[in-house]
Structures are given as structure tokens and as C-alpha cells.
């Protein structure tokens, strides 16, 4: 791994060990998702991370990746996180994904050698998701919500028209459940006896149902298939 800047120092170290890095800005308690709008990650010159408003301007660190070797390049331009990402992807590999404490120290050292206070890195906060994994394309947040860095579950404020608020997941409150509609279809089947099997034998009828279920699955019929006999 090499950290460079135009006219600046060069530091080399190779590492593939992955670690969990703590974050914070002194006593600031980062990430704090201030006003629920800080989704992009930066690094201070003390090596600690913080979340920022993505439309703010910072200097940039880009990365060039060749296998397990990573080069960090300082870009002496201020830009938004999105523009920084586009710049890095156009001219280098990407914004840096800091994989180890060693890589974190190299970026920190590069910043300190150039007297740079803060830069963008490749951290990005993902949006909220539904528990069933479905796409999140409808928003009904209450004003100033979501606003908590540790409030990772949502509730509907019924006194405010059902608008959403973020809450600590350990908080107890009433809840709604829902069921997925089940489609039922009646199909008449005429059984023609071609052998000595007894079509009134429950075991024979159960075996036939299993064969029908497998045929449906083989023909790409999705969902939880449950078949039963109905006397006419």
C-alpha cells in the first residue's frame, strides 16, 4: 500500500488483515447522524471517522487498487462526497475503503504531513429498509425525522397522521402485524383407475397430492403450495 500526494511523502505498507475501527471526534460521539441527514463518511487528521452532510465540501483521498496493494492519493480540491466519488472513479479506483488499522494510520499520516484537517473517505450510510427486504421507495417521516444515530427502528405516530419517527429498538410499544394474502383455487381432477390401487385409500390420495405438488414446482409455480382433496 502506498500513500502519495503531489510533491508529498510516500509511505509503503501491505496488509490484508481486516479489523473493526472505532470512530469518533473526541467527545463528539460520532457517528451522530445530526438532524437525520449525515450519510457520508469523512476522516479527521487524528485518524477518527465522522459522518457528514454529503453536500458539504471536503478535500479528498482517492485509492488505486491493484490486487491486495492499495495506493492512497491526496486530491487538493474541495468537493461534495458524490463529486469526490465520481472524481476518484474517473481518475483512480474509488474513494478508499479502509480495511485495516494500518491503512487508517497511513491515511492519517498523509493528512498530517500535508496539514489537512479532514477528507472524504468511502463510507456511506445506507437508507432504511423494510423487514421483508422490499425496496424502500415511499417516505412518510415526521419533520426532522429520522434524527438519532442509535435509533434504528421506526414507529408510526398515530396522533400525527401516522407519520414516522425513529426510536431505539429496545423501546416497548403497541404494534401492528400483517398477513400476506393467500390465493386459493379449486381445480376439478378426474381420476381414471388404470391399476389395482384403491383410490379411496387415504395413503394413495396423499401420495397423489405430493406428485401434483412436485409437478407444479417443476413448472415454476411459485409460492407455498398446499393441495387438498375436496369431495364433490
UniProtKB/TrEMBL annotation:
InterPro entries (alphabetical) = C-type_lectin-like, C-type_lectin-like/link_sf, CTDL_fold
**Any Pfam family matching the protein:** Lectin_C
SUPFAM superfamilies xref list: C-type lectin-like (SSF56436)
What residue stretches are annotated with the C-type lectin domain?
67-178
Disordered: region residues: 1-32
Q: Where is the composition biased (Polar residues)?
A: 10-23
Gene3D superfamilies in the cross-refs: Mannose-Binding Protein A, subunit A (3.10.100.10)
Q: What is this protein called?
A: C-type lectin domain-containing protein
Amino acid at each position: 500500500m502506498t500513500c502519495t500526494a503531489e510533491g508529498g511523502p510516500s509511505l509503503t505498507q501491505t496488509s490484508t488483515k481486516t479489523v473493526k475501527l472505532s470512530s469518533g471526534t473526541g467527545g463528539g460521539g460520532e457517528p451522530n447522524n445530526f438532524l437525520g441527514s449525515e450519510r457520508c463518511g469523512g476522516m479527521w487528521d487524528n485518524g477518527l471517522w465522522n459522518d457528514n452532510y454529503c453536500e458539504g465540501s471536503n478535500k479528498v483521498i482517492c485509492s488505486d487498487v491493484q490486487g491486495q496493494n492499495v495506493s492512497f492519493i491526496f486530491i487538493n480540491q474541495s468537493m461534495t462526497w458524490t463529486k469526490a466519488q465520481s472524481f476518484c472513479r474517473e481518475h483512480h479506483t474509488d474513494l478508499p475503503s479502509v480495511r485495516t488499522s494500518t491503512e487508517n494510520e497511513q491515511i492519517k499520516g498523509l493528512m498530517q504531513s500535508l496539514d489537512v484537517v479532514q477528507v472524504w473517505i468511502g463510507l456511506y450510510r445506507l437508507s432504511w429498509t423494510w423487514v421483508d427486504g422490499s425496496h424502500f421507495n415511499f417516505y412518510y417521516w415526521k419533520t426532522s425525522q429520522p434524527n438519532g444515530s442509535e435509533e434504528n427502528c421506526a414507529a408510526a405516530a398515530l396522533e400525527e397522521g401516522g407519520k414516522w419517527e425513529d426510536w431505539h429498538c429496545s423501546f416497548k410499544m403497541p404494534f401492528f402485524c400483517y398477513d400476506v394474502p393467500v390465493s386459493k383455487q379449486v381445480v376439478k381432477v378426474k381420476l381414471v383407475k388404470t391399476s389395482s390401487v384403491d383410490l379411496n385409500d387415504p395413503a394413495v390420495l396423499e401420495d397423489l397430492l405430493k406428485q401434483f405438488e412436485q409437478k407444479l414446482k417443476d413448472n415454476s409455480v411459485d409460492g407455498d403450495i398446499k393441495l387438498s382433496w375436496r369431495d364433490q
